[in-house]
TrEMBL record:
Keyword annotations of the record: DNA-binding, Phosphoprotein
Region (Disordered) location: 150-172
Positions of modified residues (4-aspartylphosphate): D53
Native species: Paraburkholderia hiiakae
Keyword Translocase assigned: no
InterPro entries in the record: CheY-like_superfamily, EvgA-like, NreC/VraR/RcsB-like_REC, Sig_transdc_resp-reg_C-effctor, Sig_transdc_resp-reg_receiver, Tscrpt_reg_LuxR_C, WH-like_DNA-bd_sf
SUPFAM superfamilies the record matches: C-terminal effector domain of the bipartite response regulators, CheY-like
UniProt xrefs under Gene3D superfamilies: 3.40.50.2300, Winged helix-like DNA-binding domain superfamily/Winged helix DNA-binding domain (1.10.10.10)
Lineage: Bacteria, Pseudomonadati, Pseudomonadota, Betaproteobacteria, Burkholderiales
Pfam entry (one): Response_reg
Name the record gives this protein: Transcriptional regulatory protein DegU
PANTHER family: HTH-TYPE TRANSCRIPTIONAL REGULATOR YHJB-RELATED
Domain Response regulatory residues, every copy: 2-118
HTH luxR-type domain segment(s): 162-227
Length: 245
């Protein structure tokens, strides 16, 4: 398994690297302290996952995320930052990140984000929900319990109905959901599924209606809260950005 860390603090990268190696002794870690260096590594190296800081000396991490998801859309990227406000989290999800780890979290959150991304899930710690950071459209997220993938939980309204499941989706809608969770934009999903863009847009509309949400961001958050995963990443060739695990 190969992971790229993009963060401008060498000491922080060293600490994260040490933690990851303790948890996964065979992991190979690549490091970059600048956005330009990180993007260069992401373009040429076989990787399973990228941990991306937002405050970089030569650009904003969201700019790097846009480039990576355009050039290598199948590569999972987890944002790791000191910022925890709702707008930052929502923007990360809008840009197809597969997770969000506040630097205030403990080591277990980092490991949970890694494990979640590798099985096709989106990691959002329960503390984000608990503070109400993602409650702008909470009426549409029908979950009786909010489970953070770090193992914590927060109580939601007990009167809400049980959440919808993937039951009732067509095979093509289920496949579309899998790629959505992986963070692929519509054009990349259409290429993966060998269909027209308009067909993918139709599938996405059906998914939003099925899960009673209005936007892709809400759907991704919903899947994170309810443990809906897409399955392990496809073992693409190194040129496609995914290294064998």
């Amino acid at each position: 398994m190969r992971v790229l860390l993009i963060d401008d603090h060498a000491l922080f990268r060293a600490g994260i690297g040490l933690l990851l190696r303790e948890l996964h002794p065979t992991i190979e870690i690549l490091e970059a302290g600048r956005m330009s260096d990180g993007l260069e590594l992401a373009r040429v190296e076989p990787l399973n996952l990228v941990f991306l800081d937002l405050a970089l000396p030569d650009g904003h991490g969201f700019d790097a995320l846009r480039v990576m998801k355009t050039e290598r859309p199948a590569l999972p990227v987890v944002v790791m930052t000191a910022l925890e406000d709702r707008d930052t989290v929502n923007t990360a999800i809008d840009l197809h990140a597969m997770g969000f780890v506040p630097k205030s979290q403990g080591p277990q959150a980092l490991n949970a984000a890694l494990q979640s991304a590798l099985v096709g899930g989106v990691f959002l710690p329960s503390s984000i929900f608990d503070r109400g950071n993602l409650t702008a459209n909470h009426d549409n997220w029908s979950a009786p319990m909010v489970h953070g993938t770090d193992g914590n939980s927060g109580q939601a309204c007990a009167s809400l109905p049980p959440p919808p499941t993937t039951t009732g989706l067509t095979p093509r809608e289920s496949e579309t959901l899998r790629w959505l969770i992986r963070g692929l934009p519509n054009k990349s999903i259409a290429s993966k599924m060998q269909v027209e863009d308009i067909t993918v847009r139709k599938y996405v509309s059906h998914l939003l209606a099925h899960f009673n949400v209005k936007r892709r961001t809400e759907l991704i958050v919903y899947c994170a809260k309810n443990g809906i995963i897409s399955g392990p990443p496809m073992r693409d060739t190194p040129a496609r950005g995914i290294a064998p695990m």
